[in-house]
């Protein structure tokens, strides 16, 4: 409505005065009527947009003038002076002084007052349109925990509201149900899916004495637990508090235009006041001095300045949306371009989050088909993620599923069943070793290699004989290494956070090419790591799980993978709909281009004022005879806004996935520094020694045990065929200590090879 009224007002004030457009009969030639007509129309616009006057005057009264103050002053001054000119015109009409009538007609600023408010309102609407909806992360977290619990009262199962469960109560959890409160298993065995809290894709085996947490899911067995933490003391409640606290302490980003207005507004007001008194001292009339002062306020009224940020953000948001990148707020779009450190969650972000078969290693004399046939028959009976991975792989290979009998789940160990009158088994190395009576050196080395590569080895046996090993892992996404490399090329440090163990984390980190890895971190640990990283630079956290919510909220910017949980998406500032971390670099690139565009817009807005304010103040009258025509002032103000909007529209030409021309100097220093660190880490963490006297796998195990007993040595992998032992250590260990341990074990230490 404001725009419609303003168009009618502009038609009368500018269309008729400049280009002699026709007017209705009751206005044509009646200058007073034209003035009254503009007064009424502009008055309607001012009433509709009264919030500018309320906020502007409040800011002025509290000595903190803002953009609304200048808008209010410019519009009010234009309107009040126009009313003065209208009344002065009535006197000229009575005197039939045509020259005075036309003079005062040209002193009307009604259309300027209306246009000031209209254009700024448009800017506010554009800015509001770029903002997303308020997140519901806390509500989503609270909905995770079940509303009821099955407790044992006098030996009878009773369903009660979860709020009534007390510490010490015994509660029952059946397969497929969520655990209502934190507790300790007192009866039964099962695998519990803890991905909601830890991000681990593989369920954790639970037996008597193990702890369980609220909102995790019992996947298989029947559990009886004793409640240890209830209500606000549970792990889930702690995560909810962290998200809430992080949201409360996260500093909002002040808009550039608002920061500038703190200086710009008082300066303009000062110039207008100075202009008024300067012309009075120069001998001009009060009306002339008022006209010059009002001209300063009108020409400097920050329409272009007010549009500079929201229009660019609106266009930048549109470009991002086309690429499947959703910025929830204008602040998040601005913040992304300032990123110096990107922290990536592993499961579901760098990796697919789904277990896949990666290796098929049959034993001597066994074919891959025979190994896979037995594995398929056994694992198809289980719903464990590893079992599903083997089953899906077998189905992809068009294998025929053979029926088993007497299927049994051995909690924490594996599976067994009958097939064709013979017993088949599958599970971890300890279990299968007990079945087959020991594993040879080649098999042990294969198992260790799979573990070092971040894979889970699953062994299979039939009739007491080893069939082979199948490697299963949460595989890395195909585009993850490319995405990480692109971020590093932009000079950004890339850190991977995961709840996985260090061996698995290091293997994935090596494949992805990240700069740094932090392993074995829980949700509160991730949030703490993010806070530490924030001391080193602006941090963007990228995740997909519920466990990532505290870190996503705590970071300077949180980015959620679109395929992730609703909680992560709600807690984040940005959502990547295509679930590819390549879009992280694209989001940062769009943000940087948008910020650059905003700075350009601000430059042109100020450049316009630098030229326009002296002209409005009358500084060029004596030298060149230039005097600001009010209508020209209003048109020039509109032109400046048009230039700003046109410049912002250039953002539509941005190619989010094209990094051509980006500065990469910062990355070179980071890369060089990291390379030196990697060399130091390698020298410190890995050592190969020659050991003579090892004859078999038992000798290898003996040496391994002796070396791993040394403080600082994490792992020792021995090979009796090469007389070589590869040592991985968390801190530097003296060679003499290693030599003494080898000799004490009964073998010959032949020196360090590298």
Question: What does this protein look like?
Answer:
The protein has 754 residues and is of the alpha+beta class. The chain contains 29 helices and 26 strands. The strands form 5 sheets. A 7-stranded mixed beta sheet has the order 10-22-21-20-11-18-19, with helices on both faces. A 6-stranded antiparallel beta sheet has the order 2-1-3-9-4-7, with no helix packed on it. Helix 4 (67-94) packs antiparallel against helix 5, helix 6 (110-129) packs parallel to helix 12 (303-322) and helix 12 runs antiparallel to helix 24 (582-617). It is elongated, with a radius of gyration of 37 Å.
Q: What can be said about this structure in brief?
A:
The chain has 29 helices and 26 strands. It has a 7-stranded mixed beta sheet with strand order 10-22-21-20-11-18-19, sandwiched between helices. Strands 2-1-3-9-4-7 form a 6-stranded antiparallel beta sheet, with no helix packed on it.
Give the mean pLDDT: 78
Our measurement of the CA-to-CA distance between the termini, rounded to an integer number of angstroms, reads 80 Å
Q: Count the E strands.
A: 26
What's the gyration radius in Å?
37 Å
Helix content: 40-55%
Low-confidence stretches: 127-137, 246-254, 665-684
Q: How is the largest sheet built, in terms of strand order?
A: 10-22-21-20-11-18-19
Strand content: 15-25%
Q: What characteristic shape results from the CA principal axes? A: elongated
**Major β-sheet annotation:** 7 strands, mixed
The helix tally amounts to 29
User: How would you classify the helix and strand content by structural class?
Assistant: alpha+beta
């Amino acid at each position: 409505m404001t725009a419609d009224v303003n168009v009618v007002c502009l038609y009368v004030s500018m269309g008729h005065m400049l280009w002699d457009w026709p007017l209705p009969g009751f206005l044509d030639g009646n200058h007073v009527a034209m003035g009254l007509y503009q007064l009424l129309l502009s008055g309607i616009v001012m009433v509709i947009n009264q919030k500018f006057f309320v906020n502007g005057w409040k800011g002025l009264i509290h000595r903190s003038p803002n953009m609304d103050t200048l808008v209010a002053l410019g519009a009010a001054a234009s309107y009040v002076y126009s009313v003065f000119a209208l009344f002065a015109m009535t006197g000229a009409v009575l005197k039939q002084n045509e020259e005075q009538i036309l003079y005062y007609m040209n002193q009307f600023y009604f259309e300027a007052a209306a246009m000031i408010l209209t254009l700024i309102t448009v800017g506010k609407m554009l800015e509001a349109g770029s903002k997303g909806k308020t997140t519901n992360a806390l509500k989503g977290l609270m909905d995770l925990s079940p509303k009821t619990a099955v407790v044992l009262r006098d030996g009878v199962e009773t369903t009660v509201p979860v709020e009534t469960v007390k510490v010490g109560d015994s509660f029952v959890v059946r397969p497929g149900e969520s655990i209502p409160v934190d507790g300790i298993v007192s009866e039964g065995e099962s695998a519990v899916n803890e991905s909601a809290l830890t991000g681990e894709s593989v369920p954790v085996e639970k037996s008597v004495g193990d702890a369980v947490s609220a909102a995790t899911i019992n996947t298989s067995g029947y559990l009886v637990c004793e409640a240890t933490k209830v209500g606000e003391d549970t792990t889930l409640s702690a995560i909810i508090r962290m998200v809430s606290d992080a949201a409360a302490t996260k500093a909002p980003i002040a808009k550039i235009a608002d920061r500038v207005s703190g200086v710009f507004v008082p300066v303009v007001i000062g110039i207008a006041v100075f202009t008024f008194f300067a012309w009075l001292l120069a001998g001009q009339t009060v009306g002339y001095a008022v006209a010059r002062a009002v001209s300063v306020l009108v020409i400097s009224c920050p329409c272009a300045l007010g549009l500079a940020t929201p229009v660019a953000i609106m266009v930048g948001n549109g470009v991002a949306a086309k690429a499947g990148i959703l910025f929830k707020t204008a602040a998040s779009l601005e913040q992304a371009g300032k990123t110096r450190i990107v922290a990536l969650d592993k499961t579901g972000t760098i990796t697919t989050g789904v277990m896949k078969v990666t290796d098929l290693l049959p034993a001597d004399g066994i074919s891959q088909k025979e190994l896979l046939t037995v594995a398929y028959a056994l694992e198809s009976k289980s719903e464990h993620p590893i079992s599903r991975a083997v089953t899906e792989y077998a189905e992809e290979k068009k294998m025929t599923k053979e029926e088993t009998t007497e299927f049994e789940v051995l909690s924490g160990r594996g599976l067994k069943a009958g097939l064709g009158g013979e017993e088949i088994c599958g599970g971890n190395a300890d279990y299968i070793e007990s079945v087959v009576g020991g594993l040879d050196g080649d098999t042990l080395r294969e198992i260790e290699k799979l573990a070092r590569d971040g894979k889970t080895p699953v062994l299979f046996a039939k009739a007491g004989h080893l069939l082979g090993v199948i490697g299963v892992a949460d595989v890395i996404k195909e585009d993850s290494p490319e995405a990480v490399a692109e971020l590093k090329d932009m000079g950004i440090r890339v850190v991977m956070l995961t709840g996985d163990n260090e061996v698995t984390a290091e293997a994935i980190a090596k494949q992805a090419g990240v700069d740094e890895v932090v392993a074995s971190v829980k949700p509160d640990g991730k949030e703490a790591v993010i806070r530490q990283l924030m001391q080193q630079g602006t941090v963007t956290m990228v995740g997909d799980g519920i466990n990532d919510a505290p870190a996503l909220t705590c970071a300077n910017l949180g980015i959620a993978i679109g395929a992730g949980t609703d909680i992560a998406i709600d807690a984040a500032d940005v959502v990547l709909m295509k679930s590819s971390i390549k879009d992280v670099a694209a989001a940062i690139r769009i943000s940087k281009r948008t910020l650059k565009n905003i700075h350009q817009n601000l430059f042109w807005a100020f450049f316009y004022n630098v030229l326009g304010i002296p002209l409005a103040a009358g500084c060029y009258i004596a030298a060149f005879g230039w005097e600001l025509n009010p209508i020209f002032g209003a048109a020039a103000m509109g032109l400046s806004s048009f230039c700003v909007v046109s410049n912002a529209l250039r953002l539509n030409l941005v190619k989010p996935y094209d990094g051509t021309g980006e500065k990469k100097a910062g990355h070179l220093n980071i890369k060089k520094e990291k390379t030196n660190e990697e060399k130091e880490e390698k020298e410190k963490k890995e050592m190969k020694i020659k050991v003579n006297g090892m004859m078999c796998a038992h000798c290898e195990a003996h040496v391994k045990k002796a070396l791993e007993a040394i403080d600082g040595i994490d792992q020792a992998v021995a090979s009796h065929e090469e007389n070589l032992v590869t040592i991985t250590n968390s801190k530097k260990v003296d060679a003499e200590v290693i030599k003494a341990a080898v000799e004490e074990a009964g073998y010959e230490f032949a020196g360090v090879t590298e």
